Amino acid sequence: MGEREEVQNNNDIEIGVERRGPSSSSSSRSASPESRRITSSSLKEPLLLPHDAKRTNQTSQLAIIGANVCPIESLDYEIIENDLFKQDWRSRTKNKILQYVFFKWTLVLIIGLGTGFVAFFNNLAVENIAGFKLLFTNSLMLKDKYFQAFAAYAGCNMVLAIAAAGLCAYISPAAAGSGIPEVKAYLNGIDAHSILAPSTLFVKIFGSIFGVAAGFVVGKEGPMVHTGACIASLLGQGGSRKYGLTWKWLRYFKNDLDRRDLITCGAAAGVAAAFRAPVGGVLFALEEIASWWRSALLWRTFFTTAVVAVVLRTFIVFCRGGQCGLFGEGGLIMFDVNSVNPTYRIADLLAVIVLGMIGGIFGSLYNYLVDKVLRAYSIINERGPVFKILLAIIISVLTSCCSYGLPWLSKCIPCPASLGDQCPTVGRYGNFKRFQCPPNHYNDLASLFMTTNDDAIRNLFSSGFDKEFQLSTLIVFFAAIYCLGIITYGIAVPSGLFIPVILAGASYGRLVGTLLGSLSDLDVGFFALLGAASFLGGTMRMTVSLCVILLELTNSLLMLPLVMLVLLISKTVADCFNKGVYDQIVEMKGFPFLEAHAEPYMRNLTASDVVSGPLVTFSGVEKVANILYALKSTKHNGFPVIDEPPFSDAPQLCGLVLRSHLLVLLKGKKFTKQRKAIGSNMLRTFNAQDFDKAGSGKGVKLEDLDIKEEELEMYVDLHPIVNTSPYAVVETMSLAKAAVLFRQLGLRHMLVTPKMPGRPPVVGILTRHDFMSEHVLGLYPQFQPKK
Amino acid sequence: MGEREEVQNNNDIEIGVERRGPSSSSSSRSASPESRRITSSSLKEPLLLPHDAKRTNQTSQLAIIGANVCPIESLDYEIIENDLFKQDWRSRTKNKILQYVFFKWTLVLIIGLGTGFVAFFNNLAVENIAGFKLLFTNSLMLKDKYFQAFAAYAGCNMVLAIAAAGLCAYISPAAAGSGIPEVKAYLNGIDAHSILAPSTLFVKIFGSIFGVAAGFVVGKEGPMVHTGACIASLLGQGGSRKYGLTWKWLRYFKNDLDRRDLITCGAAAGVAAAFRAPVGGVLFALEEIASWWRSALLWRTFFTTAVVAVVLRTFIVFCRGGQCGLFGEGGLIMFDVNSVNPTYRIADLLAVIVLGMIGGIFGSLYNYLVDKVLRAYSIINERGPVFKILLAIIISVLTSCCSYGLPWLSKCIPCPASLGDQCPTVGRYGNFKRFQCPPNHYNDLASLFMTTNDDAIRNLFSSGFDKEFQLSTLIVFFAAIYCLGIITYGIAVPSGLFIPVILAGASYGRLVGTLLGSLSDLDVGFFALLGAASFLGGTMRMTVSLCVILLELTNSLLMLPLVMLVLLISKTVADCFNKGVYDQIVEMKGFPFLEAHAEPYMRNLTASDVVSGPLVTFSGVEKVANILYALKSTKHNGFPVIDEPPFSDAPQLCGLVLRSHLLVLLKGKKFTKQRKAIGSNMLRTFNAQDFDKAGSGKGVKLEDLDIKEEELEMYVDLHPIVNTSPYAVVETMSLAKAAVLFRQLGLRHMLVTPKMPGRPPVVGILTRHDFMSEHVLGLYPQFQPKK
């Protein structure tokens, strides 16, 4: 509860949604917006009505689901054209612009280098920790000390699990989970402060290492994306003052637009590093993560991922010398299925269609169950860090029991004679684990369970031995991984979804391939790949990027048409049931995500229908007390400024002023006793950099202001910081059309102007929240889709 | 000259640019826009001032360069929210929406099937025609009839060249050239009517076959993209009435937005078909061709290219049976460089950097020369079809002389003993052409020249024989192809740029590889690939899509990092000198292309600075004569409608009405004697489909109207067709910010509203033309970049 209270005290930050003010459906429909318009000069009573408190509670509730309580702020991609900006623009020399371009490329380079290095470090650590654990367990088993082996195995797992969950629970709760939904939300314009913080970066790196090494059915791919984004954010915000990492020249990127570009690059670098798929990384960022894209970004992300590829290659070549401990061929997944036969028959096509449909059905079911489990877990996780750790321990023990216990159910299989020394293996690698079997026999289920997830995938994709795995083995493995994957996502450990999904998909794919037997010329390893593709398509609902990632992973282009087909089918089937898993998590976490397209019912509403008051406006030259009062009593982040006589002949819209700019202005204390415009004077005092957007959670806060009693009655000229050309729509514009404008331009505030002349020049402000389905359907339940 | 006059008579179509009216720099800056505002009711004199005529001439001049005189119209991606649309929207049932989705997917499927089929047909025809030509020449050479062989070779080439140029010159001049710039312009919102017409499709298919078979240094890739787009356009416009191809259910796609989606799919299908690169096709459409992109489109284009891949595969399997004449392994380029050694040393990296820089320099020089040659040719081509054909004949003879003559300069090389029967070859295939050589010798230059372009590329990429080509051979071949490529593009033949660029790049790449010799472990064939990548990067300036296309072409993923590196370097180097070749052609053809980003100097101007009058507005209920007069005397496509008393208390902006809608309304003749609003009555007479956007160049024309004398004095209620919520900006908004809105939303008209209340509600309209650099810098020469 401590966290929730902290949020409520934090006055200058919105919670969950940007919109505030009373907006119960009855009031906003009964009264036209401007009838409730209150100008600041007439303010006597606090603006926060009971409704407002209720709303705040509601939304913080939303934010809590998913175990991430963090203040959420909208990002603003609009260029704030105020006088200071214009002055600054005119002073920009060619040199400065070149510097800017140079620094941006340098940053992108550093992001690539950093992400590549972290990815390598992650793999190195995981391979060594997990490798040691498995070798130790194996050595005990060789001595027939089966119980001790289990104790050692489960014990190691538990310690690692506690370490991972402890980091997440105590240092950075935001680091739990995949991170892709959060990065996706950020790139949609939703800044949940702790999401990209340095502490999150730290926990994500080490939590992911411990979590994966602990044998959980989780991947390091999602966390890698999050890590890349965190690195980019750290650099884009000019480092972290708290941790003593600052660079002066980074001030060039103090705006949300540049940061968005950098974080997109970071996310792409993360995917590229996780899968060693540079092209796939770019496409993943484009298809799934980014909400806005432009051609220049394509080039930049491509450069970043190329850097990542080079870094990883360098390290791998370095490790070939044997200096990296247990990090051998196993690190950095790459599954060669080169040996497949590139001809296929009708039976293969039918199998592909069946696989696609299975993938679609299992995928949507998976999403449904993940959602349910997440909601259940969030209740447990909310109770505090200890409960988070306990939950992680329970899942860890369960996973250990499955991994160690289930292989005992499997029959020992005699080794194929042709393999010689390769079967059975007792070390870390190889497809033929001896486990409890007599000499010259192997346990096929242990080959999948008692290894790292990466090696298990490699075993499933392996070609050449069609009968390597028994049907029962594949069924048991699929069922176990499917269930473990569902119950593992949601515990307080950085956990990617890719690996569980690939594992489960590959196992049923190989099952189908084995069943087809001689009906098909294709290798069973290739069916495992198709199965993985189908399940990925069914859960994540991507097409091109998954296709490219799988191609890069498996180094095989010959089967491209079949992979495309299976992805298209599984996505189509799964889309009939529910959303993609990342979209679902974004929704569940209460992020006000702006969809690319407006809902159909929004065509039946106008912009003014959803505007909710009261509107707080300022005069061009406003009394300090009024501003302070408005800042304290509302959570608004933008205030329309209206020039009135004597500054203009009639009331006229001067523009929009931002809360953050007002705070800087008030801190500068350029007040006057008389009510007069002193704009040009102020342009000399301030410069545009003072008003640069600070990093998430930084910047001047209301508490930082120290306004004296006598200053309250003085005036301050807002003109220099007023954005004189905010984007505006007429009140009769349909909500759908307004949403297109809002979404395409990535706005934070959009003014609504009256249709008829002679009325006040602004009738309301639309923010992100006003376009959310929950808000609109709350006001107009008649548009609720019928079930 | 006939064509130019036709354009001038064509009153309801804009030429070259959308904006008209006097806009000489002095007048528009001295008088504020609204001082020249003329409402239609006050119109007595024609609006076309001398300035206007001048402007028209200027712009048609622009359009003529590039030998494409065609009327240009802007596309409009805004949803026109008028009463009819709203009525229609409310009546939309779920069934209708499902139907719409189903039809859209069906269309996309048909586009894929059609493009795949055309691509196959194209390859089949080229392989057979060119194969027959080469076999015949060879058979004469075997009999030592060298002169007759040349005559036969050059004669075949000339006949084919005349056929290709004749089709282009007489049937569809728009089919000449690559077509990619035109498709790119269309997807940017520029509709040059003949560009996607059925006749263009026909000429593009057959002209490309003849042109490629004629031995020109041209590819079929660009034309393939254009073909795909034409097929999509034909389907998206509901077929062609002229050619009796119409489908009733296609009326669902009568808007620019849906057509844009379809044509993007068509273009992607074209690339996919040309290179057999389904993923590359999607990325090419995304990176180079499309101006707007969204996630749903990614999926749809991916589906189309998957269909193309399946169709092509089916045909190729069918042809393996030998039913396709000379179409054997040669058709549909696909170059396997699988055998390369995937380890590289420092020397290789240096070579890659050098290759990238060479590619950048040669590439930008290539673009510069292509531009010069195109401008020179356009003067010749303008003189008429006969001159076009003559030019093609001259280039054809020159090409034949080079192809047949240059190999005589090369020494005969003894065949490597290891090859046995494979050397020398006399048929179509093989790397070791005998040409004039004695038995057991081959002519390496003839192996490149006396073959199809596809086979020449395959020979350059071939691995295994490092010394196959002499250095002098590669130098001569590079020089010849580089020059021929430059002088060939621009003749009246469908001509892609990919193949010449790949040929030239591969030859200098192989040269570098041969020079490196034992310093490198890499195969010379792989250096040829890197060279091709560098030259492609240097001319076309793409990164991701070229990378993927090259990977798919060569079926090799192992060298991905090197290919990425070379592309990044060559693009960076070339970008220092000039634009990409397609952008350059778009600019040269005078298309008003909207760049993704506003120019920096636009920040110093406001929206009102570039608005040029006179503004023609209508009243909500307007006299027929006034409307007719405005339609006749201006070329405006959108007119603001202003409600005045008695329809409102004060003058108030009602919205924007489109020329095309006015024409339909006038044709419907729902006029009244009195000046009164009869909106609801009209809603019953018309339905939204009547106002659907017709295909390019179709729809009601001014000449189609038959308004009687007495009807001129009657009134017509415009309210039902007025878009009541056009996007608008305030006049003080910077031009850059307005440009972002205009570009992001794909608008055709944007209203400019006054800052101060009490003035007329609209001060001007911004159209595409107002954001063009030429226009803005014409008004404000002080912002001209210093040289």
Automatic annotation (TrEMBL), chains A, B:
One GO CC term on file: plant-type vacuole membrane
Entries under PROSITE patterns matching the protein: CBS (PS51371)
Primary location recorded for the protein, binned into one broad class: membrane
Biased composition annotated in UniProt, kind: Low complexity: 22-33
Key words, A-Z: CBS domain, Chloride, Chloride channel, Ion channel, Ion transport, Membrane, Repeat, Transmembrane, Transmembrane helix, Transport, Voltage-gated channel
Cellular location(s): Membrane
Keyword Lyase in annotation: no
Keyword Transmembrane helix among UniProt keywords: yes
Domain annotation CBS: ranges: 722-782
SUPFAM superfamilies in UniProt: CBS-domain pair, Clc chloride channel
Location of region: Disordered: 1-41
GO molecular function: voltage-gated chloride channel activity
Membrane topology according to the record: Multi-pass membrane protein
Listed transmembrane segments: 100-126, 146-171, 192-218, 262-285, 297-318, 349-369, 389-409, 471-491, 557-574
SMART domains associated with the record: CBS (SM00116)
Homology family: Belongs to the chloride channel (TC 2.A.49) family.
Protein name: Chloride channel protein
Organism: Quercus rubra (Northern red oak)
